[in-house]
Amino acid sequence: MQTKVSFADSGLREYCTKYLKRMRPHVSSVVVVYDSAVPEYLLGQATAGVINSGCNMKLIKASRGEKNKTIENAVQLATKLLKAKVDRNSLVLAVGGGVTSDVTGFAASMTLRGVRWACLPTTLLSMVDASIGGKTGVNALGAKNMIGAFHFPEFVHTDFRWLKSLPEREFRSGLGELQKTALLAGGKLWRLCLEANAIQLRKSTPTLHELVQIAAKYKAKVVSSDPKETKTRQILNFGHTFGHPLESASNGKLSHGEAVSFGIRCAINHSVELQLCSAKLAADNLKLSRSMGLDTATKMKVPTAPELRRLLGHDKKSKDGKLTLILIEKAGRPLVCEGYSVNDVAKIIIANQ
Ligand SMILES: NC(=O)c1ccc[n+]([C@@H]2O[C@H](COP(=O)([O-])OP(=O)(O)OC[C@H]3O[C@@H](n4cnc5c(N)ncnc54)[C@H](O)[C@@H]3O)[C@@H](O)[C@H]2O)c1
Ligand SMILES: [Zn+2]
Questions:
Q1: How far does Cα 77 stand from its chain's mean position?
Q2: At what angle do helices 187-195 and 168-185 cross, to 10 degrees?
Q3: Residue 195 and residue 39: Cα distance in Å, rounded?
Q4: Residue 229: CB within 6 Å of ligand 1?
Q5: CA torsion, ordered 273, 277, 279, 285, to nearest 10 deg
Q6: How many CB atoms are located within 10 Å of the residue 164 CB?
Q7: Measured at the alpha carbon of residue 319, what is the angle toward residues 314 and 322, in degrees to the nearest 5?
C-alpha cells in the first residue's frame, strides 16, 4: 500500500482542491475532523480547498490529547461520522497531530467497515512519523495502542506552516521520532541531525524541512516494503518497547517523543553492552538527545519493577510471551533481536533510569 506523501510551505487551499478533484467522482463528500488547537487561518485554507473541489463538507471537532485516545472516543467519533452521513463516496480528513490521526483513522476503519481517510499532519511528530504508515488505534488497559487497525490514508500532505504555532514541548516530542529515524536510516539524515543544533531547528527552516522530508520518505519506504509489519517494518519500533511503558505510566508527564528518546538510549546502551555497537554511537546519541532537549526522561520516576512487568506484558509485539527488541550495530544498521523476557527488558529500563 503506497500512500501519497507530499510537502509544501504554501498553497494548502490549492493542494486540497487539486487532490480532491482528482479523487472525484469516487469522493463527493468530506468530513474534516480537526484538532481545535491548530491555527484557524490554515484550517480555513484547508476547508476552503475542500469546498472549492466541489465536495460537500462537514466539520467535526476532535477530542484533544493522549487521554482522549480511548475506544469510547473512537466509537463516539464513528457515530458522529455516521450522523454526518458518510458513505462509500466519503473521505474523512484528519487535521491534527498523532492523537487526531490515530483516533480518526481508527474511527474511519470501523465506520461502514472502512471509509477512506487522509491526513494533514500539524505536529512535527505526525509529519515525520504518526501520519504515515496506516497504523491507527487507541490505548487500553493503561497501555499504548492496544486496540486498532491497519487502515492506510489515501494521502498525507504536510504544510510546514502548521509548525509555527506548535508549543515548544510538542516540537521536542517530534524531535524524538526524528532521532529514531536518523539512527535507523543513518547516512545523510544522521549526519544532518548531528551537525544541526537541534533545538534551534525551528529557526533554521530549510534544514528542518529537509530533515522532515527525508525522515517521512524513509518511513514510507519501510512501510511499503512490509505494510502489516511481518518483518522489516519491525525496526520502526526502535526505542518503543522501552519507551512505551514509561509513557503510559507517566500519565502525560512524559511526551511520546521524550519516552522514545529514553527508549533509544536503553537500546543503544544495551547494544554497547552486547558489543554490537561502539561506545562512540552511545556518546553521539547522548549529545544529540541533549541538543534536542530530550534528556528529560532521566528526571522522571521509572515505574516499579512489577508495574513495568505488567506494562511490558501488554506489548503488542510479544510472541509466546517473549519480546522483540530493536538493537543497533551502527547508524543505518538496526538489528532485530527476539526472545527477550519481560524481566530482561524491565531490568534494562531500570539500569538506564
Ligand atoms: N500511528 C503511528 O504510526 C504513530 C507513530 C508515532 C506516534 N503515534 C502516536 O502519536 C501520538 C503523539 O502525536 P502528537 O505528538 O502529534 O500528539 P497530539 O496529536 O496530541 O498533539 C500534541 C499537542 O499539540 C497540539 N497541536 C497539534 N497541532 C498543533 C499546531 N499546529 N499548533 C498548536 N498546537 C497543536 C494538540 O492539540 C496537542 O495538545 C501518540 O499517541 C503516539 O502514540 C502514532
Ligand atoms: Zn512513536
A1: 20
A2: 140
A3: 31
A4: no
A5: -110
A6: 9
A7: 75
Cβ-based neighbour number of residue 197 at 10 Å: 11
> Would you call 319 helix, strand, or coil by DSSP?
strand
Residue 239: Cβ within 10 Å count: 28
Listed in sequence order, the residues at least 6 apart from 330 whose beta carbon sits closer than 8 Å to its beta carbon are 186, 277, 278, 281
User: For the chain, how far is it from start to end, CA to CA, in angstroms?
Assistant: 39
Rounded Cα distance, 265 and 273, in Å: 12
- Choosing from 42, 150, 256, 260 the residue with most ligand 1 atoms within 8 A of its CB, the one to mutate for a pocket test is 256
- Could you please report the per-residue DSSP string of 267-327? HHHHHHHTTSS-HHHHHHHHHHHHHTT-GGGGGSPPPPHHHHHHHHTT-TT-BTTBEEEEE
| Interatomic CA distance for residues 46 and 64, integer angstroms | 19
- Any bridge partners for residue 334, and if so which? 328
pLDDT tens, 315-340? 777 777 899 999 999 999 999 999 99
Average pLDDT over residues 188-210: 90
**Ramachandran category for residue 54: left, alpha or beta (phi over 0 → left; psi -120 to 50 → alpha):** left
DSSP 341: -
pLDDT class for 219, splitting at 50, 70, 90? very high
Cell numbers representing residue 340 in the block: 527477550
Cβ of residue 129 lying under 6 Å from some atom of ligand 1: yes
Protein residue whose Cα sits closest to atom 29 of ligand 1: 38
Structural domains in the chain? 4-164 (3.40.50.1970), 168-352 (1.20.1090.10)
Residue with cell 481508527: 106
Residue 145: CA count within 13 A, CB half-sphere: 22
**Nearest by Cα to 296 from 258, 328, 253:** 258
pTM over 0.90, yes/no: yes
**In ligand 1, which atom is closest to the CA atom of 174?**
15
> Whose alpha carbon is nearest atom 24 of ligand 1?
170
* pLDDT above 90: percentage of residues in the chain: 85
Q: Give the amino acid at 37.
A: A
CA distances 255 to 12, 45, 155, 219, Å, are 28, 29, 26, 21
